[in-house]
Amino acid sequence: MSALTLLGTGTCQIEHERRASSVLLELDNTLILFDCGHGVVQRLLEAGVQHCQVQHIVLSHFHPDHVSDLVPLLHAGAWSRTHPRTCDLHIYGPPGVKQLVEGLMQLFGPSSFGQPSYSVLVHEIAAGPFAIGGHSFESVSLLPAGNHGICFTWATRRYALTGDSSFHAEEIAFLKDVDLAVVDSGHIEDTEIVELAVASQAKVIVCSHLYRQINATQLQAQAVQRGYKGTIIVGRDLMSFMLA
Fold this sequence. Notes:
The protein is of the alpha/beta class. The chain has helices at residues 40-46, 64-67, 70-79, 97-108, 169-175, 190-200, 216-225, and strands spanning 3-8, 22-27, 30-34, 56-58, 89-93, 120-124, 128-132, 135-142, 147-154, 157-161, 180-184, 204-208, 231-234, 240-242. Helix 4 (97-108) links the parallel strand 5 (89-93) and strand 6. The mean pLDDT is 96.
């Protein structure tokens, strides 16, 4: 089975219904987290995945609401008595990710986050292609915050995840004609979501990283009036999409 699941569609705000930013990708037998904000480790359980099964984590940037659950995930992997980690964990991110992980190791002590039976391997990736578990991805720099979105093709369909992003030409180009995009909608206005849909013609746009309530029906109607042929959806935690 291959699927994309929204683990967290929220932000730094503490809310009952939303955890912070994270998307789980299941690509055959490869489990990948894109971002790891607060509350996400618990959401993994609700999605039927143990923390120790995750083999790869991709960080878009280093804001706390995108990285804070690295701490409980790494700690549980090393010391959980019921589900200890037995496989290596790969962490990918923009330049600076090695400093981030090394800083956590120094703060809490290396033994808090690792055991001799596996390794935590950190990979700095710049904009451009990279591979995870034999699958091809592309990292794209998107303003602001040194943020990197990722895109990939699965079974001939194109998928894109933005992390944080402002509205600009690079974001439009990033989403151009993709089949499904998970979009930061907290840092752009409703009018910009409509413009992004019309200009990119992404077939499905899932609004995530939500600071406010969004009326998808209204945005859909406005976008269709301007020639949009796809669908705008407001994401919610644990919403899942099968990858064709």
